[in-house]
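Please predict the structure of the following assembly.
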Amino acid sequence: MLFVTSNEGKYREAKKIGEKYGVKVEWKKMKYLEIQGSNLVEIARKSAELLSSEIKKPFFIEDSGLFIEALNGFPGPYSSFVFKTIGNEGIIRLMKGEKNRKAYFLAVIAYFDGSDVHTFVGRVEGEISEEIRGDKGFGYDPVFLYGDKTFAEMGDEKNEVSHRRRALESFFEFVKLNP
Ligand code: IMP
């Protein structure tokens, strides 16, 4: 199964999870046009539709984001841009003195089966940590607390509970039923 992404961290997670489901995930390292929008499912669907005219065989993409309750869901669909600009230090700064630290990660997979696009969603609830912790993982992992550890302190344990794991599970189940 072809995974189109420029993000190696995402590919590694998907590959490991695929092994558990007997799905061989192959990496097509490539950037693609991601449309702008406020809804992650719509962004993933439209991006996959656009890309399908170029790739022309089955593939999937994944779009994810971090949603912070006290910031009304920011950075949400802008997670990638926000990470590149203010990064984890910026998130910690924005959340300084904030009591409500609730946040969630959302992952949307859009799968082009050769003719149609199907979407699958996964979500994991956690909190924004008070400081950057851990050196495993990628992106916002060092500021996302799941229980008493950040995702960046969990290593492979993260793959058991992550938003990506949950979205991939529904996707791989679907692929098994619709080979
Ligand atoms: P995109 O899906 O490639 O647009 O990524 C959105 C942003 O969220 C990027 O900055 C990613 O690094 C970050 N991100 C996505 N998934 C995760 C995750 O599992 N852990 C930490 N950061 C993530």
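Residues 40-55 form the longest helix (16 residues). DSSP finds seven helices and seven strands in the chain.
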